[in-house]
Specification:
- There is one protein chain.
- The protein has about 150 residues and is mainly alpha-helical.
- The chain folds into two domains: about 100 residues, no CATH class; about 40 residues.
- Helices cover about 50% and strands about 5% of the residues.
- The chain contains five helices and two strands.
- It has a two-stranded antiparallel ribbon.
- The longest helix is centred in the last third of the chain and has 37 residues.
- The radius of gyration is 24 Å and the shape is elongated.
Length: about 150
Amino acid sequence: MLLALYSNNLYSHDGEKHIIKGHSKADKLEQCVEPTEDMQKNHFGYLYHQRDETVKHGIRTKQHSLANCIDCHVSYDDKGDAISINSEGQFCQTCHVQTAVNIDCFTCHATVPREKQVRLDLKHNQDSATTIEEHTSSLAKYFNETNDDRY
């Protein structure tokens, strides 16, 4: 009975190429960190194994890390901004929808590359630091002016 329900077409690719809006680093490569067909069928196993190695044993490697996958497979729009990998029409979301598999990695993990996020955070922090510095200078000036009048 189970064999009758089993389909060889469990994978979203089966020879089909991705048609994704935007451009990623992976678009320029011949294969992923493992042969393409293997990654298409077993990427979740690699991710689970990597998760266990990292969380349980503290072993971090790039080869099968989710962050490394995002760095390579995320697409960029014409302005150079990263498009969330799980957005409609993007790398992870496209296949997961086609195979009706829930993609819950991104409830915790970032959907854009780490260096892009770091640059955004740094810009935000620099903007915040400038704003804080301006406010501090303005408060100090106000304090000095009001205190000079009292003495």
